[in-house]
């Protein structure tokens, strides 16, 4: 009878082992009462890296148990043998042949428990791919896929955690919001791939600007947030800002061009008041938005007035669209003189009278409109109004000088704007030569084919093209040769400073010399004093003059009187 039983047990044993061996993804190991390996299936080899030959006879704790678990495993096995206390199934991290930790779900059975030869079998299921997926899910919820930076959710969580961390009453926390100024434009002009390249390079630069303990997150497509904790007396913030500015000055290579990509930043500092951490983010964001509304490319520390100004910006933006139909816009004209005192052209400048807020300076609402994609509606209105004004002057029998209008790069890239302009010209009978267009350097840096084509198209029909604010911002002389320009307008900051500042004087002299050889005329803006005028006259007899010394921008009726008398001869000569 005993023989038959033994035989049956042996047969079951064989079936059992065959079954275990056949399980491809389930690692099964058998251990004797001294925890030496007596069974090691193929899946164990795959999971832990030891072949059956290498594993057989080895001690469990020497083979796959990490050091920190070693004593616990020996004791648990002993307890099972002596008091029948089974080792519960659990998720563990065991060690493979390379010494790396492998996540497994491990369950255990004890066979022949009450005999001299108890055998413990461990059944381990590999959890690596599950863990990997979990990590991916965690990554997706915590990190930005494109840059690998923390995402917005993670930023908020971190701020919350920081808020509950104790800190010295002298420590301060700082949030810096950094926005790329014109990512949409880069995407439109160079394509998304190049836009992504800018983001990638910017992220590397930002990482180099901060300390390893600082936190960096991507807040939205073109906005990044840095969180710093500063000790009292630390000058880390100054250093970080200096490094950020330096990083912002380095151009980016986009296709074959080197491009300057500017950033606007808002900085908020919170000195030891943990309750206001969300304000810290809100304030830094407000400061960044303010920097953008102020014309971009600047770093601003948050001030509480920004909240009111932001409120004002919203009010302005929401009333901007209806301003034309409510007759809130008007144009004034600032004459441009030759050095004999004759009015040779003029610049149309927009004025906005808001019913509640009164006169709003274009220096305030134009940058705002540009940043919120509302500039095209302004450009359309100004162009139509200026052409109608020229038509009126022609009908009155006046001989009007060319009127320069300020047009944004966004409109000039847009075929519908050019169509609108040409149909206005055709309908009104105003010649193209009566119109000038001022574009900024910024519009040119995009070097958009469409923009160049449209400028050429207009120029071929007689429209004068002037480059406005020359010398500010991007100042690459190279595009002066590449673009079809008739006029360069030297920015008023040069005119103001040149008489006393040798560097500005040198820049102006260079522009005068270059414009002669390129056959472009120069208009000096912001001529306010006799001293400015003397300097210009000493350098160039041909450049044109615009500024308060001769005339402020004036209403159309006043301008009519002026062009009939050209009354600045006394001032100029
Ligand atoms: P801008 O195109 O550089 O226009 C010249 C600005 O300088 C005008 O300010 C003009 O009034 C001012 N200015 C002229 N001479 C002097 C001077 O001797 N001293 C001083 N301190 N300032 C002088 P404004 O009219 O306030 O316009 C500011 C800016 O707003 C313009 O700068 C232009 O960028 C924008 N803007 C104005 N009108 C329009 C428009 O119709 N369309 C577009 N897109 N932008 C406009
Ligand atoms: Ca202008
Ligand atoms: Ca200007």
Structure notes:
The chain is α/β, with parallel strands linked by helices. It folds into three domains: 2-132, PAS domain (Beta-Lactamase, 2-Layer Sandwich); 143-304, Alpha-Beta Plaits, CATH 3.30.70; 315-564, TIM Barrel, CATH 3.20.20. The chain contains 24 helices and 21 strands. The strands form four sheets. Strands 13, 14, 15, 16, 17, 18, 19, 20 and 21 form a nine-stranded mixed β-sheet that branches. A hairpin with a 5-residue loop joins strand 13 and strand 14. Helix 8 (183-190) crosses helix 9 and helix 11 (277-293) packs across helix 12. It is elongated and about 125 Å long. One calcium ion binds next to strand 18.
Secondary structure layout:
Layout: H1 2-22, E1 26-31, E2 37-40, H2 42-48, H3 52-55, H4 60-63, H5 70-83, E3 90-95, E4 101-111, E5 119-126, H6 128-142, H7 152-164, E6 172-180, H8 183-190, H9 192-209, E7 215-220, E8 223-230, H10 236-249, E9 252-254, E10 257-259, E11 263-271, H11 277-293, E12 299-301, H12 305-320, E13 329-337, E14 343-354, E15 358-360, H13 362-371, H14 375-395, E16 403-406, H15 409-412, H16 415-428, E17 435-440, H17 441-445, H18 449-460, E18 464-470, H19 478-482, E19 487-490, H20 492-497, H21 502-518, E20 521-524, H22 530-539, E21 544-545, H23 556-565, H24 569-572
Parallel strand pairs: 11-12, 14-16, 16-17, 17-18, 18-19, 19-20, 20-21
Antiparallel strand pairs: 1-2, 1-5, 3-4, 4-5, 6-8, 6-11, 7-8, 9-10, 13-14, 14-15
The chain binds ligand C2E and calcium ion (2 copies).
């Amino acid at each position: 009878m005993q023989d038959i039983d033994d035989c049956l047990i042996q047969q079951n044993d064989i079936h059992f082992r065959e079954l275990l061996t056949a399980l491809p993804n389930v690692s099964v190991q058998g251990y004797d009462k001294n925890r030496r390996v007596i069974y090691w299936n193929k899946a164990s080899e795959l999971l832990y890296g030891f072949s059956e030959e290498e594993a057989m006879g080895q001690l469990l704790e020497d083979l796959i148990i990490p050091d920190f678990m070693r004593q616990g495993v020996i004791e648990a096995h002993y307890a099972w043998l002596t008091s029948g206390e089974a080792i519960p199934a659990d998720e563990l991290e065991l060690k493979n042949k390379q010494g790396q930790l492998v996540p497994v779900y491990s369950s255990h059975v004890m066979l022949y428990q009450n005999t001299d030869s108890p055998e413990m079998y461990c059944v381990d299921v590999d959890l690596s791919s599950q863990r990997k997926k979990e990590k991916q899910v965690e990554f997706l919820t915590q990190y930005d896929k494109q840059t690998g930076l923390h995402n917005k959710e993670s930023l908020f969580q971190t701020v919350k955690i920081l808020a509950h961390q104790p800190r010295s009453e002298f420590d301060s926390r700082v949030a810096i919001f950094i926005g790329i100024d014109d990512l949409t434009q880069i995407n439109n002009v160079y394509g998304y791939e190049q836009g992504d390249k800018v983001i990638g390079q910017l992220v590397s630069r930002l990482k180099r600007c901060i300390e390893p303990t600082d936190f960096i997150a991507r807040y939205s497509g073109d906005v990044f947030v840095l969180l710093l904790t500063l000790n009292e007396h630390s000058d880390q913030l100054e250093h970080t800002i200096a490094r950020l500015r330096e990083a912002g000055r380095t151009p980016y290579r986009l296709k074959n061009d080197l491009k300057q990509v500017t950033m606007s930043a808002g900085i908020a500092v919170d000195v030891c008041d943990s309750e206001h951490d969300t304000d810290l983010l809100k304030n830094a964001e407000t400061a960044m938005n303010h920097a953008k509304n102020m014309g971009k490319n600047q770093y601003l520390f948050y001030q509480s007035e920004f909240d009111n100004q932001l409120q004002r910006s919203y009010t302005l933006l929401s009333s901007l669209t209806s301003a034309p139909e409510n007759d809130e816009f008007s144009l004034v004209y600032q004459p441009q003189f030759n050095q004999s005192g004759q009015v040779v052209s003029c610049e149309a400048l927009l004025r906005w009278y808001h019913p509640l807020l009164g006169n709003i300076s274009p220096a305030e609402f134009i940058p705002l409109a540009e940043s919120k994609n509302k500039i095209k509606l302004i450009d359309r209105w100004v162009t139509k109004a200026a052409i109608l004004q020229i038509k009126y002057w022609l009908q009155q029998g006046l001989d009007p000088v060319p009127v320069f209008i300020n047009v944004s790069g966004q409109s000039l890239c847009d075929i519908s704007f050019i169509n609108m302009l040409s149909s206005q010209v055709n309908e009104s009978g105003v010649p193209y030569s009566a119109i000038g267009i001022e574009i900024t350097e910024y519009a040119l840096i995009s070097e958009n084919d469409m923009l160049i084509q449209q400028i050429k198209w207009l120029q071929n029909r007689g429209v004068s093209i002037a480059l406005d604010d020359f010398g500010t911002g991007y100042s690459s002389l190279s595009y002066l040769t590449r673009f079809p320009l008739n006029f360069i307008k030297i920015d008023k900051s040069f005119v103001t400073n040149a008489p006393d500042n040798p560097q500005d004087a040198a820049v102006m002299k260079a522009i005068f010399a270059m414009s002669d050889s390129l056959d472009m005329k120069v208009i000096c803006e912001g001529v306010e004093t006799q001293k400015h005028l003397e300097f210009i006259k000493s350098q160039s007899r041909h450049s044109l003059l615009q500024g308060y010394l001769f005339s402020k921008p004036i209403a159309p009726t006043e301008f009519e009187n002026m062009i009939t008398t050209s009354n600045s001869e006394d001032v100029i000569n």
